[in-house]
Write a structure and sequence with these properties.
The chain is mostly helical and about 675 residues long. It is built from 33 helices and five strands.
């Protein structure tokens, strides 16, 4: 018997069956989303509770249904995960495929652009192509083949450029003047990509072709070189001097492409006539920079021939051709200073500084000019302005070096010289090299580091054996070592090559040799060139002549011009001491010491005391002088003489020996070798 409420006899109730079956159907049909799954799982206990009073068979059926449902859900979840991963993999694959295609397309575009750029570069550049030389069989058998001749010609053209640019300060010259826009190549017989480009450039007229022939029998040959469509030159000579023949051929070729470089090369090698031929051609250029450089060199060549008027004319024309970049202004200033027209030189620099206030070189040159007249305040002001515009301005750095020496800070001066030399290593600027070695040498000589100073000079002469600066520095070094005959030779050579300050070195050598008449004539002329140094040397000559009154007048003029320079006070003190004005001399020696303790005033003070018979006081001053300058031989020598005067000859021998050790070639010390 059934009731609406359930089955109490263990017989399946239709109502219960109706409730369970639809649930299983709903599970299979409706499952598909997380909310629905959660709702179905939440309804499962409810179904179990609803049949809490059902028969054991009914309970077992429900228990079996729930684990099955759970397993089904887990399977469906796994399938969904696999499906999700498959979709993700397909998405990534599609994106990678697109990325790959983009990369390939980009690479193709890049390669195409690169090929186009290379092609344009190759077709628009210029090349000087050395074609084959016709050589007779007899010479080919001796190794003088067409290709050998081509290589030798290229080597000589490279030599002309390298030797010229080693001495030429390219930093001051527009690159369009000295840089080559044409490659040097030897024609290839093989079919290469380069050969194809060369052929096309030839059709376009971009390349210049050079060929020629070597004819002759035995040792005498005639080398002919031709520039296609231009000119040819035949050089006759000995086959053993083939490099010399090729050098002349290279000059002829480069005369067409770079006449300024050839002009400088010939000038450096003292071929004035050949250099004039080259600069005449350079001034016909369409490049105003090259015209200016050609005119500048033209003026320099005329000056070398003694034509000062013509030199000034060409320099002025150079400035007109390129007012801002022409180097002729510098040459005019140096020439004016050499002629003693210092005021004119200064006015030119001042006008240029007004026109180009941001040109550091002009301010450096103004500082250098101020140094020559002894105005150290102006030197510092101008040099600081130059260095503010360019911390590596060479003239200003040299001025800084000289100022430090005048003030007695020799190690700092040497540091400036070493810094300049590091810049030379970095820039390979020959003008900077000249100034750097000068700065190093200035400091090394006052520090009496003669071995290192000699090494600096030898290095400079090895780099630039034909320039004036190396010979000038050598003269200064030899004077410091009391080798006056050799110093005079070097100074004369530097003067011949155009060095302004070498006149001072020559005067010092003449004084050292005792040739006071010649030294005085030179010094009187040098006062107009470099007033500060000229006056000091003239004062020294009058002291040595025993004319202290005239010397005192001159040193007062030195002090008037350069009140910050210790040398003037020291010189005046010496002159006053010779006039027996001990009080006045002592005052001047003290002033000199306040400016620069290492100037030598203490030594001369000791000499003054010794002349009065105060040998103990003199020895004390010599000791003080040696504290400031321990490598100076003269204080030891005078110390020894004072010891002899005090009756202590044995102790004096030690001082004389030390003096000879420090300055073995000092002419006044040679007597100690035999006497003691």
């Amino acid at each position: 018997m059934t009731t609406a409420s359930g089955n109490t006899n263990g017989i399946e109730s239709p109502a219960t069956s109706d409730r369970v079956a639809p649930s299983e159907g709903a599970t299979t049909k409706e499952f598909g989303s997380a909310p629905e799954t959660a709702a179905l799982l939440a309804s499962a206990p409810t179904t179990h509770t609803a049949v809490g009073n059902a028969t054991p068979n009914t309970q077992r059926e429900v228990s079996v249904t729930i684990p099955g449902l759970s397993q089904t859900l887990h399977g469906i979840d796994h399938e969904l995960q696999l499906l999700s991963r498959t979709h993700k993999f397909d998405w990534v694959s599609k994106r990678l495929l697109v990325l790959r295609n983009v990369i390939i397309a980009s690479l193709l575009v890049l390669v195409t652009i690169l090929i186009v750029v290379v092609a344009i570069s190759e077709l628009t550049k210029k090349a000087l192509v050395i074609n084959g030389f016709d050589v007779p069989t007899s010479l080919e058998e001796r190794g003088f083949t067409s290709r050998v001749l081509g290589k030798k010609l290229v080597d000589q053209m490279t030599l002309i450029r390298s030797q010229t640019l080693t001495r030429l300060s390219t930093r001051d010259i527009n690159p369009s003047v000295w840089k080559s826009d044409a490659d040097l190549t030897i024609a290839e017989s093989k079919l290469t990509v380069g050969a194809v480009f060369a052929y096309v450039r030839g059709l376009l007229g971009r390349d210049t072709y050079v060929d020629g022939e070597l004819m002759g029998q035995g040792s005498e040959v005639a080398l002919t070189v031709r520039i296609r469509g231009n000119s040819h030159k035949t050089i006759v000579g000995n086959i053993d001097d083939l490099d010399g023949l090729m050098l002349k051929a290279a000059e002829h070729i480069m005369l067409e492409s770079h006449p300024f470089i050839v002009g400088q090369f010939r000038y450096f090698n003292k071929d004035i006539a050949g250099a004039l031929q080259a600069v005449t051609k350079a001034t016909q250029s369409d490049n105003p920079e090259e015209v200016a450089e050609g005119l500048h060199l033209w003026g320099t060549l005329l000056l070398a021939k003694g034509d000062r008027t013509g030199a000034f004319v060409k320099w002025e024309e150079s400035i007109l051709a390129s007012p801002k970049t022409s180097r002729a202004e510098e040459s005019i200033v140096f020439a004016l200073r050499t002629q003693g027209r210092r005021d004119e030189a200064t006015k030119r620099l001042e006008r240029r500084a007004a026109l180009y206030p941001n040109d550091p070189y002009v301010w450096g040159m103004l500082g250098e000019g101020s140094f020559d007249v002894g105005d150290l305040v102006a030197v510092e002001r101008f040099s600081q302005k130059a260095l503010a515009l360019n911390p590596q301005e060479r003239v200003a750095m040299m001025n800084q070096n000289r100022l430090l020496i005048v003030r007695g800070d020799y190690q700092a001066a040497l540091a400036v010289g070493d810094q300049m030399m590091r810049l030379v290593t970095k820039t390979q600027d020959p003008e900077m090299r000249s100034y750097a070695m000068g700065a190093q040498l200035n400091a090394l000589l006052v520090l009496r580091e003669f071995d290192r100073a000699r090494s600096v000079v030898e290095t400079y002469l090895a780099v630039d054996p034909l320039g004036p600066q190396g010979h000038y520095r050598q003269a200064v070094l030899l004077n410091s070592a009391h080798e006056y005959d050799e110093a005079l030779v070097s100074a004369n050579k530097a003067i011949t090559l155009g060095s302004l300050h070498s006149h001072g070195a020559r005067i010092i050598a003449l004084i050292g040799k005792g040739e006071l008449d010649a030294a005085q004539r030179e010094a009187e002329r040098h006062v107009k060139r470099v007033p500060a140094l000229g006056l000091r040397l003239l004062g020294e000559i009058h002291i040595r002549r025993g004319q202290p009154a005239r010397a005192a007048e001159i040193f007062r003029e030195v002090i008037k011009q350069a009140p910050q320079h210790a040398a003037g006070y020291t010189g005046l003190g010496r002159a006053l001491a010779l006039q027996r004005d001990d009080v006045g001399a002592e005052e001047q020696f003290k002033k000199a010491g306040e400016i620069n303790k290492r100037d030598g005033a203490l030594f001369y003070w000791g000499e003054m005391l010794a002349a009065k018979g105060d040998f103990a006081g003199a020895i004390k001053k010599y000791e003080e002088a040696l504290i400031q300058d321990p490598k100076w031989g003269e204080p030891y020598a005078k110390w020894g003489e004072s010891l002899v005067a005090l009756g202590n000859a044995d102790a004096a021998k030690e001082k004389f020996a030390k003096a000879l050790e420090l300055e073995p070639k000092h002419p006044d010390f040679q007597k100690y070798k035999t006497k003691f």
